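Example 4.3 (complexes with small molecules)
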Amino acid sequence: MTASTTVPAPSTPTATDLAITDITITPIAFSDPPLLNAVGVHEPLVHRVVIEVRTANGLLGLGECSGGSTRLKNLAAGANAIKGVSIFETSRMEQLINQALDPGLGAFERAAVFSAFEVAALDIQGHATGRTVSELLGGTVRDEVPFSAYLFYKWAEHPALDGKPAITDDWGEALDPAGIVRQAQKMISEYGFKSIKLKGGVFPPAQEIEAIQALRDAFPGMPLRLDPNTAWTVETSRWVARETEGLLEYLEDPTPGLEGMGEVAATAAMPLATNMCVVAFEHIRRGVELGSVQVILGDHHYWGGLRHTRELGAICETFGLGLSMHSNSHLGISLAAMVHVAAATPALTYACDTHYPWNGHNDVVKPGTLRFVDGSVRVPTGTGLGIELDREKLAELHRQYLDARMTARDDTGYMQRFVPEYTADLPRW
Ligand SMILES: O=C([O-])C(=O)C[C@H](O)[C@@H](O)C(=O)[O-]
Ligand SMILES: [Mg+2]
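Answer. The structure with 2,3-dihydroxy-5-OXO-hexanedioate bound is encoded below.
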């Protein structure tokens, strides 16, 4: 009689194994240069949050989102609601989070809370199945994701304040066209970007047009964008659109509101883009009716995660709208998620925004996987998001958060410390 050998079948994790057992929400603070925008200037520290989700069988998934005390409260409510749910049940997670959040909260905040957990769940799904997040989203339609150089007017340093010394950085001052061109040259030589976005709304529009013209002269043929974050009236926006005809691939949020944007779009030669007037699915219908925008800047943090961002892409295709990607000050967990979703979204028609050149040196992700080559980031090939958390760095940035006692981003209040008469009333010109 011959003894038969039984090879045990590879064990497949069960629903119980993949149930969420533990969620850690870690607020962090990391350094940021004095970047100027239409409502003030970036503070020396950015408040952000790292989410770690764990399953019964010990898998770990990561998420990242913007911070603030309200966000932390909502994240805690969301985390309580999804304990015990399988990480494959992201629709159920979304429903439970929506039920747990204050009924008065708008679509934007609800989507932001769910998004942080959805990214972590997809990260774990990838580890559990041996797949990348982009594969879970349908697979890549591009192996590398192009980003644009995100330029800001900026001060040379954070001025000395409250007995603390001034904080300098490697970027230097950029307060005029020559400074902006210098900044673009440095950023493009380090990252290789192939398109440029200038954050405007800081100086009178004629000066910002001069900066765009200087960029055009310095970088012939490179696609350019200008984003004054609604600092201009309809009339001023129409004038700027005429002056920049042939110079911009799109003009982003020149004026507030769907109606105002529609009035500008009716006469502008270039497409109008937004991350301010169409920021949730419920805004799309009216935006299309009014012809307010021709390009939507998606952002998985605000559109309810990676799957909903792909759905946004499908809607943009349906209505003949372009799709680009918005960013806020962020680290590598967000960057990895942006890269996976952008790689898996056929409708993406423009290079994505990123603040990473301003903040990436602070990263909580171990180096190696997320690198800019010729302005693009290759899609990580490891399972899930394909990144690894640097726990020492996380602990350091958490300590920094505790020491700083931050509650919310306040670009305007920080500006008023130096320019007391400053107001953030928009449109300004
Ligand atoms: O495209 C945008 O509107 C942004 O990137 C918003 C950001 O808050 C930007 O204005 C900033 O970092 O100051
Ligand atoms: Mg914008």
